[in-house]
Design goal:
The complex is a heterodimer of chains A (about 325) and B (about 325). By secondary structure, chain A is α/β, with parallel strands linked by helices. Chain A is about 35% helix and about 20% strand. Chain B has helices at about 5-25, 25-30, 45-55, 70-75, 80-85, 120-135, 155-165, 185, 195-200, 210-225, 255-265, 265-275, 285-305, and strands at about 60-65, 140-145, 170-175, 180, 180-185, 205-210, 235-240. In chain B, helix 10 links the parallel strand 6 (about 205-210) and strand 7 (about 235-240). The chains are: A alpha/beta (about 325), B alpha/beta (about 325). Chains A and B meet through helix 3, helix 4 and helix 5 of A and helix 6 and helix 7 of B.
């Protein structure tokens, strides 16, 4: 390791992480649908590019379209001493294998009294923004974060994508690693170090309001913060990075400073993870709040296809700005 | 073709079958006594399948079982007392009382769990075989599932995956003729289950599931084939469960004549008679053997009954590798 930090896109950062994992971890292997021969030889978004050329077909496997067995088989392979990294092409397809994720992977350690580790990583992508519509654009992180036994990573930058994936492979818990399809080509600095779960990142320092957001809404929150700054409002933006484990201490510390909280995500607002963050702050930092917190999330609709319709159901920069003004009013 | 050694597989297998029956026979009684929570699914009548398959396996091999999995677990080498303790929810159970009858895993002997989801073990055994292929550890994996589970979609996916990758997995379909209360006559249009394997390029054989010799020989061949890297086998074992689906089953879906017909083919009485005819066993030894087994199982039951209930604090452990994450 100890490579010099470098600016690169998210997909290249993930690709670099997989190369480094396969290099460093003999037990690791990668499998998924169309991961070696599609596009430029790296699957839909290039993340697995050249892995098979370097590490061979025993460690990088194209699979049939069979999510149900792939998820349960990868779970068992994990409990038998290997470290599978399974790509599910779109997170929407994970529903076909929810028995494997929820009834098997998430519960195996517990049901069997701690005998079995399940060092499984399911890599997949969620989110809207490129017109993939209702069955290829959902933000399902809340569903996964709700299940005891699962860890859920939601990287929002190339650096976090690299670091969190490196860490995910080392944990003995099953990890849902949710990439965002509209961030694969965004660039950022990657320092090539693993990043522990459960440590939020302060993406922007501020004093008047705390905005907690992930992935695409994180990016929009940073734009919103600049607009608010022009009006003399200083926003602190926090990226939780992982939804379980999750780091409330960083949020409490920020709210103690700002007295105001806005939580934004692309998952449907109703029953979304934002409610969890707001509830934790209300329960534990009530006396630090100067106003009621505000939640932002997708409308309670499937994701539509047409561009303007799609944009209308997801929190925008304007909506984030308006939410901040509302809580400060 | 492997052969059947009357002493090695015959006497050993007979003893194991009879001991498992003695264990399983007690399940409805323990349930009536209120010592078993939830549901428990004995496999009395089906012992020849679990024992015949297990005699062909090594300790390092894996089995993925189903809700009716006590026999699979015990035949693979689990301790009878610790298994019973798990079923009674006690601290000495293999899973510390967190699993119960439907979720018994024993890592050290490759039992990847009995399983509460019908058909789930099919995917899990396939995954163990995938791990064996990737790591080169030489192990084979067995999935035990019933005629009911053969209607789950995972079967199709697993058969195809195992066949294209030549995975060292043996799919053991225990056709006991009922999926809970649903008969195969009503639930499948093609009762020849070997067709399911053939359709996916999986070598498929039918065996008499009431004859342990037949099961063992087929399993031996399948294990050798799997270990040689020649891929999966489906073994379809025709068998029958003498008791209901679970303790408390009214069994209104089948008639007594049918049950009696299968009792006439009892796998334990049958193998005993074969071994007596072959001169490796006599009635006197068989009788004393059964008495010994009853004593051993009684000891297992006493152990389980005397095992303390788990400390409540353990309800919150083992969710994650890092316990602080669940202490919230």
């Amino acid at each position: 390791m100890s490579k010099a930090p470098k600016s690169m896109s998210t997909w290249r950062a993930l690709n670099a992480a997989l190369h480094d994992i396969l290099e460093d971890t003999p037990e690791a292997f990668v499998l998924g649908e169309d991961i070696t021969t599609w596009g430029t030889g790296g699957g839909i978004y290039g993340v697995t590019r050249k892995l098979a050329d370097v590490y061979g077909k025993n460690r990088v496997m194209d699979t049939p379209i069979s999510e149900e067995v792939l998820i349960s088989a990868a779970t068992a392979a994990a409990s038998r001493g290997t470290r599978p990294i399974l790509e599910i092409m779109y997170s929407d397809f994970a529903f076909l294998g929810f028995d494997g994720i929820i009834n098997q992977a998430a519960k195996s350690r517990y049901m069997f009294g701690g005998q079995f580790d399940v060092p499984l990583v399911i890599r997949t992508n969620g989110g809207s923004g490129i017109g993939k519509a209702a069955q290829h654009s959902q933000s399902l992180e809340t569903l996964f974060a709700h299940i005891p036994g699962l860890e859920v990573a939601v990287p929002g930058t190339p650096g976090d994508a690299y670091g969190l994936l490196r860490h995910a492979v080392t944990t003995n818990n099953p990890t849902i690693f949710l990439e965002h399809k509209n961030l694969y080509y965004d660039k950022g600095l990657v320092d090539f170090e693993p990043l522990p779960f459960g440590q939020a990142r302060i993406a922007r320092v501020g004093t008047d309001v705390t905005i907690v957001a992930t992935q695409q809404i994180l990016a929009r929150s940073l734009v919103a913060a600049e607009i608010l700054e022009a009006d003399g409002i200083s926003a602190e933006v926090i990226d939780p990075r992982t939804l379980f484990p999750f780091d409330m201490d960083t949020v409490y510390a920020s709210v103690a400073k700002t007295g105001h909280l806005v939580v934004g995500h692309e998952a449907v607002r109703d029953y979304g993870w934002g409610a969890e963050f707001v509830a934790e702050v209300v329960e534990n930092s009530w006396d630090k709040l100067d106003a009621a917190p505000v939640r932002l999330g997708a409308a309670r609709t499937p994701i539509p296809y047409s561009e303007e319709l799609e944009a209308a159901v997801i929190p925008t920069v304007d909506k984030i700005v308006a939410a901040v003004r509302r809580t400060l009013a | 073709m492997p052969d059947f050694d009357n002493e090695k597989q015959g006497i050993t297998g007979l003893r194991l079958m009879a001991k498992i029956r003695e264990f399983e026979r007690r399940m409805p009684l323990l349930s009536e006594e209120g010592l078993i929570r939830g549901s428990t699914h004995p496999s009395v009548g089906m012992e020849a399948v679990a024992v015949g398959v297990s005699l062909a396996l090594e300790t390092g091999d894996a089995v993925a079982s189903n809700h009716r999995g006590h026999a699979h677990t015990l035949a693979k080498g689990a301790d009878f007392g610790r298994t019973m303790a798990e079923i009674l929810g006690r601290s000495d159970g293999y899973c510390g009382g967190k699993g119960g009858s439907m979720h018994i895993g024993v890592k050290e002997i490759g039992v990847l769990g009995t399983n509460g989801i019908v058909g789930a073990g099919i995917g899990i055994a396939t995954g163990s075989a995938l791990a064996a292929k990737v790591s080169g550890d030489g192990s084979v994996a067995v999935a035990y599932f019933g005629d009911g589970a053969s209607n789950q979609g995972v079967l199709a996916e697993a058969f195809n995956l195992a066949a294209i990758w030549n995975l060292p997995v043996i799919f053991v379909l225990e056709n006991n003729h009922y999926a809970q209360s649903a008969s195969i006559e009503e639930m499948v249009a093609q009762p020849d289950f070997t067709q399911r394997g053939i359709a996916y390029g999986v070598k498929s054989v039918a065996v008499n599931g009431m004859d342990m010799r037949d099961v063992y020989l087929a399993a031996r061949e399948a294990v050798d084939k799997a270990r040689a890297g020649d891929g999966p086998t489906l073994i379809v074992a025709d068998t029958y469960r003498y008791l209901g689906h679970m303790a408390g089953d009214t069994e209104i879906y089948r008639n007594a004549d049918e049950v009696k017909q299968w009792h006439d083919k009892d796998p334990i009485a049958f193998l005993a008679s074969v071994l007596i005819d072959a001169g490796v066993l006599d009635n006197e030894r068989w009788t004393s053997m059964q008495a010994e087994l009853a004593t051993e199982v009684q000891a297992a039951e006493d152990f389980a009954r005397n095992s303390p209930f788990p400390d409540v604090s353990t309800a919150f452990t083992d969710v994650y590798d890092k316990e602080e994450e669940v202490s919230r």
